[in-house]
Amino acid sequence: MELGSITPIVAGLIGFLALTGVGFALVGGEPSGAKASKRLGALSVDKRTPQSKARNTVDNQARRRKQIVKALKTQEQLERRASLSLEARIVRAGLNITPTVFWVASGITALIAILPAVLFRAPIFVIIGVPIAAGLGLPRMVLKTMAEGRLKKFTKMFPDAIDAIVRGVKSGLPVHDCLKLIAAEAEDPLGIEFKKLLENISIGLGLQESLDKLYSRVPSAEVRFFSIVLAIQQSTGGNLAEALNNLSVVIRSRMMLREKIKALSSEAVASAFIIGALPPGIMVLISLMQPNFMAPLFHDPRGPLYLAGAAGIEGVGIFVMRRMINLKI
């Protein structure tokens, strides 16, 4: 083939490649349909992203609310169930005795209380009423007082324990190690209760079940909040340190409010105590100073009726005053 015939062919190929390059430069490296679909996909993603985020936020909030309501109902059921058990009351008081020992101690108290009534030949209703009050009422009152004092001490120490967990979580420690640190370093009753919590976890119980047992031993709103925060964080995730820090602030605020209410209602409490103790106190003083003056109440057939009526009215007044000054937070 001659050189003159090859030159037009080479020129044609060069021209074709040049036109193809210009076309690609104008249209782009991808087909127009592909670019259009990409643009539509990007626009659709941009439009759906806020909606999907909002939907996910609403679903998470609804899930958290359901979990909180469920946890609150469970804790309330546990509290009602535990409040009816004598064994639970003994555990709350921090005593290492069985209900049998408690009943034996109550019987001994009743026998000790009945001796003075028999020796002084008191009326029959006094001989019957004093051992019942001393055997049933007094031990339960002491048990309740011990449980309330232990609960107040635990609640006072609890915010410091939560702060220790917050510091441990921020430094990278797992929650279990933070609980171990509190159990080893904290004073009683906080240290004992966290040791029991760790013992329940070590024998195979879940964190939520162990916290439920802790709440049954220490039935306070602060422990219930702590249990709910850990349960929600374990199931849905989130910043545990921030949640526990907020819980610590809330608990301290509740303690300050409780102390403020106690200071404002102290005058009413003193007045209620004086008014409630005044009638029986005067009756005892008159009986000691002038026995003949009070004798008809104990020897006349109508005397027990008058005493029962006076005791009933006194009881109603004490109940009303207690409800007026007993403010729950």
Largest sheet: none
Distance between the termini: 107 Å
Average pLDDT confidence is 77
Strands, count: 0
Structural class: mainly alpha
Oligomer: single chain
Indicate the percent of residues in helices.
Answer: over 70%
From the spread of the alpha carbons, the general shape counts as: elongated
Q: Spell the H/E element sequence.
A: HHHHHHHHHHHHH
Task: Assess the beta-strand content as a share of residues.
Answer: under 5%
Poorly predicted regions:
1-6, 16-48
**What is Rg?**
38 Å
Number of separate helices: 13
Fold and architecture overview:
The longest helix is centred in the N-terminal third of the chain and has 52 residues, at 32-83. The protein has a domain at 265-329. The chain has helices spanning 3-27, 32-83, 86-92, 99-119, 124-170, 175-185, 190-202, 207-217, 221-236, 240-264, 266-289, 291-299, 303-325. 86% of the residues lie in helices and 0% in strands. The protein is elongated, with a radius of gyration of 38 Å. With 329 residues, the chain is an all-alpha fold. Mean pLDDT is 77; it is low at 1-6 and 16-48. Helix 6 packs across helix 7 and helix 7 (190-202) runs antiparallel to helix 8 (207-217).
In a few lines, what is going on in this structure?
Helix content is 86%, strand content 0%. The chain has 329 residues and is mostly helical.
